TrEMBL record:
Name of the top EC class for this enzyme: oxidoreductase
Protein name: NADH dehydrogenase (Quinone)
Superkingdom of the organism of origin: Bacteria
Subcellular location: Cell membrane; Membrane
GO MF annotation terms: NADH dehydrogenase (ubiquinone) activity; oxidoreductase activity
EC number(s) from the headed UniProt entry: 1.-.-.-
Ranges where the NADH:quinone oxidoreductase/Mrp antiporter transmembrane domain occurs: 123-415
Amino acid sequence: MDLFVALSIPLLSAAVFSFTGDRPWAPAANGFSSFALFLATLVLAAHGVLNPGVRALSGQLFLDPLNLIFLVLTALVSLTTALYSVGYVRFETASGRLGPTALRLYHSLFQMVVFSMVLGLLSNNLGLLWVALETATLSNAFLVSLYKTPRSIEAAWKYFVLLGVGIAQAFFGLILLYFAAERELGPGGKALLWTELAHVQSRLDPTVLSLAFIFFFVGFGTKAGLVPLHGWLPDAHAEGPTPASAILSGLLLNLALYALLRVKVLADAVVPNHLTGHILLAFGFLSVLVAVFSLWKRNDVKRLFSYSSIEHLGIASVGFGLGGPAATLAALLHMTFHSLTKSCVFFLAGTAAQCCRSQKIQDIRGLLALSPFWGWAFVLAGLALLGMPPFGLFASEFLLLRELVRTHPLLAGLFLLSLSVAFAVLLKRILAMVSGDRPAGGTFPVFAKTPVLIHLSLLAILGIGIPSVLWQWYRKTAQYLTGLP
C-alpha cells in the first residue's frame, strides 16, 4: 500500500494540476504535494530497512537498498524545488512570461516528471523502468519548451530526438537481455524482473549480455549526459525554466545512471575482463575532460553549470568503472552530493538571472551588494560544487582520488588536473558574478530562502560526518553493486 501511495501522490497531482495549475494556490499545492511524497518515501525507507526485499503488484514493484537511496533523494530535491518554484512562478507570471496555459502545463508536468522518476526507481521490471524513462523524457521535453521561444522549441526538439534515439538503443538492449534470460527463466513476465534475473545472472550468455550492455550504455548513457552523447544537455538547461534544470540535473541524470548500474550488476557476473567497468571508466574520464575544458567558453550561466553536471556524472561513472567497494561507495556518495549541490546552484543561478534580467554571465554582477544572503549563498554553493571542505563533494572526490592513486596513478594525475581546471574556471566566474557594484535597477525577487538553506546545511553536515546508519546503508549498497555479500 505504501508503494502505491508514493506513486499515486504525484500522478493524481499531475492530473489535478492539468486543470487547476493556473489557480493562485497551485504553486503552494505543488509544494504540499511534494512534501506528502517526501513523507511517503520516508515511510518506505523505514519499511525497506526493517523488511528488505518488499514487493508489490505481483513483484513488479520492489524496494532494495539501492533504489531507496535515490527514492528519498528524489523526493527531497523535488520538495525543495517545488518550494523554490513558488517564488519563481510568481516572478515569471508577473513579468508576463507565463500565462494560464503555461502554468497548467508547468505544474502538471512537474509532477509527471516526479511520478516517472518514482515509478522508474520502484520498478522491479526492466520494461517498466524503460517506460518510466521514456515518460520522463516526454514530460521534460515539454517543460524545456515551456516559454515557446524559437530557441526553447529548438532545444526541446534536440532533447527529444537525441534522447529518443538513445531510448531506442536501450530497447534493443532490453530485447537482447530478455532473449538471454528467457532461456533460464522461461517465457512469461519473469524474464525482466531484477529479483528473478539476480538468481540466474551467472548462467546468462556472456556474449549476448555484452551486446545488451553496450546497447544499454548508449541508451542510458545518452540520458545521463555522458560524452559523446551529451549534446542535448546544455541547450535543455539554458532554455528551460530553472526548476526544470534543477530536477533534470539533480535527479533525472541520476535515474539514467541508476538504470545502467542495474544492468552492470547483471553483466559483471558473466562478462569477462571487467568490460563494463572499462567502458564506464573510459567514457567517464572522457566526459570529465570534455566538460571541464568546455567550461572556458561558456557565457550563459545555466549552460555553464550544465557542463559541470556532465563533469560530475563523469566522475561518478569513473567510480563505478573502477569497481570495488571503496570506489563504488565514493561514486554513490558523489551522485547524492551532486544532486543536493547542483539543484541548489541552479536555484541561485536562476534567481540571479531573474534579478539581472539576463542569463549572460557578463550581465550578472554585484550580487553581494544587492543581497548579502543570496550573494554569499552563491559563493558557498559554488565552493560546495568545487569540492571544497567541509562540503560533501570533497569527501566523495577524496575517496575516489585515493582509489585512483592506489590503482591507476596516471589517471589520478589527470583527474587532479581536471578538477584544478574546473576549480579555476568556475571560481573565477562565480566571483565575477557576486562582486562589483549594485546593478542599476536590480532587485531580488522575494524567494523562499529555505530550499537553499536546507541544501547547504545538508552538504555541510554530511561533509563533516555522515551518520552511522546512513554510512552503513551506503556501504551495503556498494557491496551489493560489487557482488559482495
